[in-house]
Amino acid sequence: MVQLKMGNSIRTVGLLNAPGVRHGVPFHHQLGRDGFIHLSERELKITRGESWSEKWTMSYTLGPSTSILSFTRSGKGKGATGLFIKLLSVIPEQNGKFSRYGYELDVETVPNSDALVRTRSSNHVVASCSPATFEHGKQIHEGRITETDLYLFGTEDIRGLTVLKKRKNMNEKEPHAVTLAHYFAYSSFAYSSCINHISRNRTEVSLSVIVKIGATNGHLDITVEGPEQHPAPTLRYLIVEAMRTKIWKRTLCPHCANLYRHRHSVPVAQRHDNSYVMFQELFFISHENQDLEAYFMPTLCQLVSSSS
Does the predicted TM-score (pTM) go above 0.85? Predict the structure, then answer.
């Protein structure tokens, strides 16, 4: 995982923790034989009047599919007041054609406010076979509102999920915290093949990128975490649960929940319905005993089919 605090230097941990990763310098990381990640060189533009913009691009290829995620931060003087995020995923279909799924998020500070941001988002789909699915969720708790927009796209082999989560107080029109999460899961087998024996030679690569946005003293505070690698079945489970409940949190992924539990050594606040508990037990047991894969994968497919 590479974690970037925009406005400061890049700090790399996890997946991209390598000597070659430096702020503003291109970097290439191989993910086995079927995937790779590429970070572009930083593009810095300065205009008259101390206005500036900074852009960098992250692309990741998983099997035959590619996602391109670009960030453009802009401002005047020392602080950033605008952020534009553009996401494009290109996925092959069974008919030999390619579908394109795009998403854009524009964030800016609110005048006369130290802690609020204004967001505008849009999406577009050019699909030959597989349409995109959209869901919206809203929760109110103790005077605070959480709104979640979910954008699911892809095929049986390649799944993508983009989530926009906004938090605001009841008496405020604009949010004070925004999170954009992008998940991309690739497997060399489809859900329909789960009734048969699953080969041990299957290929699975899954990644996530999470962008946290807020404002401090009238300037944007932006943190980019990722790409982080996950076991493909755990991300597929997260996608199913998020679309079913219209609620997103990163610990819906059993892999992330387990990491959080070990890092903090405290119980994780989770939804403990039967399907989640069953999935966690099967996931961790299967990693201790790989012979249970033939039982584990059909169970995951039953969860997927029952939630669709």
Answer: no
